[in-house]
Amino acid sequence: MPQSRTLLLLAGDGIGPEVTRQVRRVVDWMNRARGAGFDVVEELVGGAAIDRHGVPLTDETMAIAHQVDAVLLGAVGGPRWDDIEFARRPEAGLLRLRKELGLFANLRPAKVFSPLIDTSPLKPDVVEGLDLLIVRELTGGVYFGEPRGITELPDGGRRGVNTQVYTSHEIRRVAETAFDIARRRGRRVCSVEKANVMESGRLWREEVTALAAESHTDIELSHMYADNCAMQLVRNPRQFDVILTDNLFGDLLSDEASMLTGSLGMLPSASLGPADPATGRRPAMYEPVHGSAPDIAGRDMANPIATLLSFAMMLRFSFDLGAEADMIEAAVEKVLSGGIRTQDIMTDGMARVSTSVMGDSILRALERMPG
Ligand code: NAD
User: Fold this and answer.
1) Domain 112-263: which CATH number of 3.40.1010.10, 3.40.718.10, 1.10.443.10, 2.60.120.10
2) DSSP 3-state assignment of 192?
């Protein structure tokens, strides 16, 4: 293993520090027990940074984020900072990180852990063994396209405009990411758009098809219209391995897919930027899907699993430590099989534990794991 792997830990607000603390324990264990060589820097983001520095992310912290191999973020925000103007709010720190690191590919897995199958709103036989990943384009499309705005019309009415726009470069770089990731999984990519009614969708389909034929012939590529995909995700979600889609459809489909698994406290995510042509290194930020949960913050009640699974994604995608990522996922599965639950995933007959006891249990499961 190389000498040092650098990691910036931004705990943030609310339950952020509680859940990232459990990741820190796992990192320390990996350094001790497996010589992983993680060098961790901890800094402030969001409301915590506003309280200390007056801004949600300092230039110094941004500079560290550019230097490290990967960033792990807890959560930002809370009622204490709700009255501050938008540009200085906690969320602005997160947006700055995403923007300045150029994170154009957002990865959201939906995996059902078998002990939690009953928390899914779908029937067990539909979701059993579900393990799919959505790759969403994050920096283009209708959320950023020009022209945009609301104008007054001569008849006294108004007109609202947004523009769905994609270039071949934007499509190809996110498709490249999806193909690379599929290669580490089931080698299948389903590309999703609405080529039947949108020119940007037709371009999307043509570019993805051409890229696959040029350099990814080992991947099985299929195409699906977004409306059909929304339906297939609840009808037969196991048909998917990797779903590749744009910013708008990805926003909707990733929320839909994540709910197949039941609980917000179990959902990790990753966002990746462009690879450096010289080193191959790519900026990356990993974070749970959930927010800062002010209603339970400071009470040692939050589920740390989403953040731990985000760290597992980091091991896989930023450090090529697939075996170690598998270990964390297996440890989580083992602890859940043993009936250990935080309150958000609690069901009858299980043992309800705190954030730190969930962390203890996962660490113990890791320590007992062979290899
Ligand atoms: P939330 O995700 O924080 O909470 C929604 C509900 O889920 C709450 O009842 C909460 O207790 C529960 N929950 C969330 N994570 C949990 C966990 N790990 N374990 C157990 N229960 C959990 O969303 P919200 O309440 O809409 O937002 C709260 C704050 O978080 C707001 O300030 C919002 O802006 C911010 N937020 C931040 C992010 C982020 O940092 N990426 C994302 C979403 C919301």
Assistant:
1) 3.40.718.10
2) strand
128 CA from centroid of ligand 1 (Å): 27
Residue nearest to atom 23 of ligand 1 (CA): 291
Atom 36 of ligand 1: nearest residue by CA position? 291
Return d(Cα 72, Cα 93) in angstroms, integer.
14
What are 132's two structure tokens? Answer: 């799919």
Q: What is the pLDDT, as a whole number, of residue 205?
A: 98
Specify the residue with its C-alpha closest to ligand 1, atom 6.
Answer: 293
Which 8-state DSSP code applies to residue 93? H
CATH fold for the domain made of 1-104+273-371? Isopropylmalate Dehydrogenase (3.40.718)
Q: What is the pLDDT of residue 1?
A: 47
pLDDT of amino acid 257: 92
The predicted pLDDT at position 3 comes to 57
DSSP 8-state assignment for residue 274 = P
Work out the angle at residue 199's Cα, subtended by the Cα atoms of residues 194 and 203, and round it to the nearest 5 degrees.
85
304 Cα nearest atom in ligand 1: 18
pLDDT tens track for 101-132: 999 999 999 999 999 998 889 999 999 999 99
Pocket test for ligand 1, best of 45, 57, 269, 290 (most atoms within 8 A of CB): 290
Q: Spell out which residues line ligand 1, taking CB within 6 angstroms.
A: 15, 19, 75-78, 91, 94, 264-265, 287, 290-296, 302-303, 306, 344
Annotated active-site residue in 59, 227, 276, 295? 227
Listed range (144-148, 219-223, 225-229, 238-242) with the worst mean pLDDT:
144-148
- Between the alpha carbon of residue 263 and those of residues 268, 297, 329, the distances in Å are 11, 17, 16
Q: What is the pLDDT of residues 181-213, one digit of tens each?
A: 999 999 999 999 999 999 999 999 999 999 999
Domains 1-104+273-371 and 112-263 share a fold: yes
Query: Domain residues of the chain, as ranges?
Result: 1-104+273-371, 112-263
- Taking the C-alpha atoms of residue 323 and residue 139, their distance in angstroms, rounded to an integer, is 31
d(CA 19, CA 27): 13
